[in-house]
Design a protein that fits this description.
- The complex is a heterodimer.
- By secondary structure, chain A is an all-alpha fold.
- In chain A, 75% of the residues lie in helices and 1% in strands.
- Chain A has a single domain (2-318), classed as Formate dehydrogenase/DMSO reductase fold, CATH 1.20.1630.
- Chain A is built from 13 helices and two strands, in the order αααααααααααββαα.
- Chain A has a two-stranded antiparallel sheet with strand order 1-2.
- Chain A is globular and about 60 Å long.
- The relative contact order of chain A is 0.15.
- By secondary structure, chain B is mainly alpha-helical.
- Chain B has one domain (3-260, 302-433).
- Chain B has 14 helices and eight strands.
- In chain B, the strands form four sheets. A two-stranded antiparallel sheet of chain B has the order 1-2. Chain B has a two-stranded antiparallel ribbon with strand order 3-6. A two-stranded antiparallel ribbon of chain B has the order 4-5.
- In chain B, helix 3 (44-77) runs antiparallel to helix 4, helix 7 (175-205) crosses helix 12 and helix 8 packs antiparallel against helix 11 (316-343).
- At the A-B interface, helix 3, helix 4, helix 5 and helix 13 of A face helix 3, helix 4 and helix 14 of B.
Chain lengths: 347, 442
């Protein structure tokens, strides 16, 4: 029971990570396309500059929370996904440098280099995060001891021993990439003005259609790849809440974009992402790390540490996260509004 | 290549490189708070000095963040059997670091870097305090994690070998953690002080930014003298006594003390010879080690040969050198900073070119001393990953082969070479521009 609470908290942290870092990853992907001049690029960067680092901390804090509550999951998943995680680390480095070092040297080539580094690493990170989600849903090839080591790719089929990248995880990765790009476009569209805002608005419609199609494809593919997932979702009516939220978010996004209610469009996009992640979390329950073989896999109960640790951590974790939410609220309320490429203040 | 060696090399390389940056920002964070506080009381030069150091801090912080994330990941990727066995304990502090320290730092860093105009003096001062607080909190959580590995408390070992938390209070108030934390933070303050004093000396020697340079020297030499002293006494002394009490094998190896004896001398210089189990070319002060550890001139200290060789740290000469480099440099730091702080009176320091040169050239050495200190702690902990509970050889991820680790180790080396180039060139650019020409919006 206590372990289930931590499962929900961990999934919640990851969901917050995805909606927060999601918009700055999406902004990164679109950076080169929606902002052409240096002044316009500064608009995109200023819309995420004060918050991106804090957004990324949700990933680190979720990592800490995972080792705290589910040490076995942390150990098995991180060592099993060794290569993709190391590659993720390198992209995280480049992305941070791209945002933070760009303003140190006033030279167009310097800026161009970091703009491309920032954009590419945002794109590749999202692809890997999407593939990671695909891997968890599809299940991994555990040995009898419950340990695995996933190669980056094998033959791209969903075999009993698949690679990190196969046709299924690539579909999920593509779905994630399009959805996160759309999320980024709703953010910049809300915070920026002028040409940057207009270009984001023009991208939203094709991104929305692509997200809709790919989400449908992912859903069908998931039924083929992991049939028991659908079973989990059907068994309890409450689990339909998350898929329902995703559908409502997607419809809302369309509606509010048409009405040019940009704030509501952004929050609809958040609802869609939370709904999708919630669906995945509900579908793999009671596993934290499913195996290809449905009789194996790591369950919440197996992976969790002892009740004392889970109990005592709640006493500091809850106030700590509430405090973090207070900092975030303060920072987001103080973000510059309606950023324009004609502002002189670069920060 | 042996997989264990590959995993150890990668962690050693990435953590050694990483800690070059936090020791700078932990130290500078404190000094910036001092300067901002002086600025708040109307000292304009101090506020401009703070503005300059905030830029250096911001650059160091970025490098610290991007090289720090791989360390949290590596607990799981490279040390999976350790994480699986002990994650229920050390996960508490690792998660606390994220929840209490990283959120705090990241939320106020941007305000500190770019918010001075918008926030006004009081709130900007508060941002400096919050970022400093965040970095010092972060230090406690990570040192507390390490302290559990050095001296495990608050836990219980289950029959299946899993180490679980029994008392969060005992784990968080580990006496080893208090001693190690004080020593580590003081060490970082020494680094911050030497960097600030060294840059101040450089400006004075080259006759640029003179009022700011004097302010740097004034704040940094006083802080540096206090911190250099405190690094030796009481914090280093307390730390050494804990090693004597709880890790006697490590203490013997650190000191290069092979045979159990009474009235043991303090070794200043010498090369451990593992074939003959003696010290070559020793320079020793008689009986001092016995006195320092037990306050008795003839106290008995156990030598290495008293213990089973499988309990010995696996690289005794390196451990010995790391320890002696730290202690030797620490002693020199006290001399330099005490002289500089003494000559501050009447401004004699500002005319003492020999000492300004010394301060300028001393900049790299506290980084070496702090690194050597951590090498002492970590090599001294061997062969244990968690002292007396889990051997390093039983903690690495045995599902990750040495070839894969070598691939990522080489990747980190290439990436960090690039980071070094970037850091050095951008830091030189900030220093070249200097404090007076800095505008707050950057």
């Amino acid at each position: 029971m206590l372990a289930d609470v931590w499962y929900v908290l961990l999934a919640g942290m990851l969901a917050v990570y995805v909606i927060l870092d999601g918009f700055d990853l999406g902004a990164g992907m679109l950076h080169l396309f929606v902002a052409k001049t240096n002044a316009e690029r500064n608009v995109v960067l200023r819309s995420i500059g004060p918050v991106w680092d804090g957004n990324e901390v949700w990933l680190l804090a979720a990592g800490g929370t995972m080792i705290l509550a589910f040490p076995m999951l942390y150990a098995r998943a991180f060592s099993g996904f060794y290569l993709p995680l190391m590659i993720v680390l390198w992209f995280l480095v480049f992305r941070a440098l791209g945002i933070e070092l760009r303003h140190h040297v006033d030279h167009p080539l310097w800026r161009q280099f970091w703009d491309v580094a920032f954009s590419l690493s945002s794109l590749l990170l999202t692809i890997f995060f999407g593939a990671a989600l695909g891997n968890v849903v599809r299940g991994v090839a555990m040995n009898d001891a419950g340990v695995f080591f996933a190669p980056l790719w094998t033959n791209f089929r969903v075999d009993p021993e698949p690679g990190v990248l196969d046709w299924y995880t690539l579909i999920v990765a593509l779905n994630a990439t399009v959805a996160v790009a759309m999320h980024g476009a709703t953010w910049i569209g809300w915070r920026a003005t002028g040409d940057v805002q207009r270009r984001c608005g023009a991208l939203l419609s094709p991104l929305w259609t692509a997200t809709l199609v790919l989400t449908a494809v992912t859903t069908v593919a998931t039924y083929f790849v992991q049939p028991q997932m659908g079973h989990n979702l059907q068994s309890t009516l409450t689990w339909w809440l998350a898929p329902g939220l995703a559908v409502a978010g997607l419809l809302g996004l369309r509606l509010f974009t048409r009405r040019e209610q940009r704030r509501a469009a952004f929050f609809s996009s958040c609802a869609f992402l939370v709904g999708m992640l919630g669906s995945a979390a509900a579908a793999i329950f009671p596993f934290v790390l499913p195996a290809r073989d449905a009789t194996q896999g790591l369950t919440i109960a197996q992976a969790a540490t002892e009740p004392y640790g889970l109990q005592v951590a709640l006493y500091w974790w809850v106030p700590g996260v509430l405090l973090a939410i207070a900092y975030f609220t303060f920072n987001y309320r103080n973000l510059p509004k309606r950023l324009s490429a004609t502002d002189s203040d670069l920060h | 290549m042996d997989a264990l060696l590959a995993h150890r090399l990668q962690f050693a390389f990435t953590i050694t490189y990483h800690y070059l940056f936090p020791q700078l920002t932990i130290g500078l964070g404190l000094l910036i708070v001092v300067l901002k506080t002086m600025g708040l009381r109307g000292d304009t030069v101090a506020n401009e000095a703070a503005r300059f150091w905030i830029k250096v801090f911001g650059l160091g912080f970025v490098l610290g963040v991007v090289t720090g994330i791989p360390l949290e990941f590596q607990f799981g990727t490279n040390w999976a059997r350790f994480s699986e066995a002990a994650g229920g304990v050390i996960g508490q502090t690792l998660a606390m670091e994220g929840v209490f320290a990283f959120f705090l730092e990241s939320s106020f860093l941007y305000l500190l870097l770019f918010g001075e105009k918008r926030l006004g003096p009081k709130l900007h001062w508060l941002s400096a305090v919050m970022v400093w607080l965040g970095s010092w909190l972060s230090g406690y959580f990570i040192v507390c994690t390490n302290a559990f590995m050095q001296h495990p408390v608050g836990h219980r070992v289950r029959e299946d070998g899993v180490i679980v938390l029994e008392s969060l209070g005992a784990f968080l108030t580990n006496p080893w953690a208090f001693a190690q934390y004080a020593h580590t933070m003081i060490g970082a303050a020494v680094t911050g002080a030497f960097v600030m004093a060294g840059i101040g000396a450089f400006y004075l020697l080259s006759g640029r930014h003179v009022p700011h340079a004097k302010k740097f020297l004034q704040v940094a030499t006083i802080t540096g003298a206090l911190a250099s002293l405190a690094a030796a006494f009481p914090t280093g002394d307390i730390q050494a006594k804990m090693v004597v009490e709880h890790q006697p094998v490590t203490f013997a190896a650190m000191e290069g003390h092979f045979e159990t004896d009474e009235g043991v001398g303090l070794i200043l210089i010498g090369q451990p010879n593992m074939e003959t189990m003696t010290l070559d070319n020793p320079v020793v002060i008689p009986k001092v080690l016995s006195f320092m550890t037990h306050q008795r001139w003839d106290a008995r200290i156990a030598g290495l040969t008293e213990f089973e060789p499988e309990l010995w740290p696996d690289n005794i000469p390196l451990l010995y050198y790391a320890y002696h480099v730290m202690v030797g440099l620490g002693t020199i730091f006290i001399a330099i900073m005490a002289a500089a702080a003494f000559l501050l009176r009447g401004g004699r320091l500002f005319r003492a070119r020999w000492l300004l040169w010394t301060l300028f050239l001393a900049i790299p050495f506290p980084f070496i001393a702090n690194t050597a200190g951590w090498m002492t702690a970590e090599l001294g902990r061997q062969p244990w990953l968690i002292h007396n509970l889990m051997r390093t050889a039983d903690g690495y991820s045995d599902n990750v082969s040495s070839g894969n680790v070598l691939f990522t180790l080489l990747g980190f080396m290439g990436l960090y070479a690039l980071l070094s180039l970037l850091f050095v060139s951008l830091a030189l650019k900030i220093i070249g521009r200097g404090p007076s020409s800095t505008s707050e919006s950057g």
